[in-house]
Write a structure and sequence with these properties.
177 residues; alpha+beta; five-stranded antiparallel β-sheet; 4 helices
Length: 177
Amino acid sequence: MTASRAHRHGPSFPPSHGDNAADGQVPRGPARPGHAAVPHRNPIRLVRTTVPAHPSRAAGVRTMVAEYLARLRLPTEHLDNAVLATDELFTNAVKHGSPGPGDTITATLETTEDELRVTVADRSPALPRPRTADGTEESGRGLAIVATLTDDWGIAPPDPGTTGKKVWFTLALQGMP
């Protein structure tokens, strides 16, 4: 992966509209009033959880991701990469993006037949900064791990009316069984 790909700041497919997807399908509507909806040939499947911004919640988020992706029958490597990358984003959100004890983190998984997109949202406007950790440091490798395990990653603004940011990654699913 090239450095420029790892720092792209934009979704691979349109973001979801709303938190409720009872039938697993996210409704498609106009992106902005007065603009036509963008047709999407593949339905988007959505699962989302919001948890307290606490390290003890990481295991539950990993389990949710693994269980959801296991139902998609992804190859083990894709499943493992997605779980690890999600864990890195969640850990970063807890460590760097949660200034208050009552803060929450939202993890969202969206899939089409072509792509998996995982988004982790926190309430801090502080943007993640990739860095190079030296061999003796115990941290500082999270975004490098995400960039290595995924096809793309980036940063997006928070949902309207909220504060913070979203950090996301994608994995291509073309050719999956």
